[in-house]
Each structure stands twice: as C-alpha cells, then as structure tokens.
Amino acid sequence: MREPELCELYADEQLLAVSKPSGLLVHRGWGRDPVVMVDLVRERLGGTVYPLLRLDRGASGVLVFGRSAEVARVVQPQFHGGAMDKRYLALVRGVAPQSCVVDHPIPSKPRGPRGPAVTEIRRLGTFERYSLVEARPHTGRLHQVRRHLQHLSLPIIGDTTYGKSEHNRLLADRFGLERLALHAWE
C-alpha cells in the first residue's frame, strides 16, 4: 500500500491543519495500522505533534494538530466544549428535515456513561431518497454525528456500524462510493 500524501491546509507556529483521507487512522489507539496521520505529520514537521480532535478512520476532512503540549492543553478543550465551530458534510439515507437540533445523550468512550450531546443538522439537498446534510456538533462524543443521524433514522451511507448495508451496497455499485460518506469540511 502506498503511503498517502500529506496535504497541509494551514500552518503557523502553534497549529497545523491537514486534510485526512478516508481510511487512515489519526493515531494508534484502536488499530495496528503501519501508518497513521500522527506519523505523517511528525515526519513532515520533524517533531512531536498533538491531535486536537479525532476523525473516524472512514471519515475524511480537516484535522488540526497542536505543535506543542501547551497549545494542545489550551485548544483541545475548546474543540470538545463547543467553543470551536465544526462542520461536517454527510450523505444520508432518507429525506432529512430542513433543519433540526438533536439533543440526545451518548457516551464519550465505548461502554462509557452517556453524556450530553447536541448536533445541529441542516439539509443542503436531496437526490432520490438520499440527502446531503451539514452537521454541526456542539459537543465531542464518540461517533456523535454518525449516532445522531442514525437517531433521526438518517444513517450515513457507507457506515458499517450505524448504517444500512443494502444502501451502502447500492451506492457502492451505482456510484463507486465505497467509504463512509462523512467529511469534516470546516
């Protein structure tokens, strides 16, 4: 397997934002992948970096790193506490409401206690029985966007955990979409 290219989106003395491709882990936590995003960024910068948020392996999009432990201590809580405006695009099965707010508790780690979780959902368009939505999570829980969309009976295409396999196969066959249709775009 060829090592993915690292695409920088923003860099200064304190922060680095990169584009994470679908299929790549952020760090070695749940997997034993030979290459993860942290490795690629460390190699590029020649030093230690600190991921300020995580994206699921299947998701693509903007990933932000602190360039020091001090920056990570200050900025990371802002991502999880709702001070940062995070926006995701998702292709879902079903016609989403024009807009809604999902306020449904979910765990912040596997088998952990449920905690407050809030996500704003806005429909951007529809195609047959599918919708393109923007999701803006205000909290940082495990699989929050995926779980909140599934809670609305709008599973993300390509989601093998919370989605519907028949729709995943249909869109893979019809359009070649063989990944989680979730992108952290802002």
Explain what you see.
The chain is of the alpha+beta class and 186 residues long. The chain has helices at 37-45, 69-80, 144-151, 165-175; strands at residues 7-11, 15-20, 50-51, 60-66, 88-93, 99-103, 106-107, 114-115, 118-127, 130-137, 182-184. The strands form two sheets. Strands 1, 2, 3, 4, 5, 6, 9, 10 and 11 form a nine-stranded mixed beta sheet that branches. The longest helix has 12 residues, at 69-80. It is globular, with a radius of gyration of 17 Å.
What are the defining features of this structure?
186 residues, alpha+beta, nine-stranded mixed β-sheet, two-stranded antiparallel sheet, 11 strands, 22% helix, globular
Q: What is this structure, in a nutshell?
A:
22% of the residues lie in helices and 30% in strands.
Number of helices: 4
Assembly state: single chain
- Global shape: globular
- The H-and-E topology, N to C, reads as EEHEEHEEEEEEHHE
Structural class: alpha+beta
What is this structure's SSE topology?
Layout: E1 7-11, E2 15-20, H1 37-45, E3 50-51, E4 60-66, H2 69-80, E5 88-93, E6 99-103, E7 106-107, E8 114-115, E9 118-127, E10 130-137, H3 144-151, H4 165-175, E11 182-184
Parallel strand pairs: 4-11
Antiparallel strand pairs: 1-2, 2-4, 3-4, 5-10, 5-11, 6-9, 7-8, 9-10
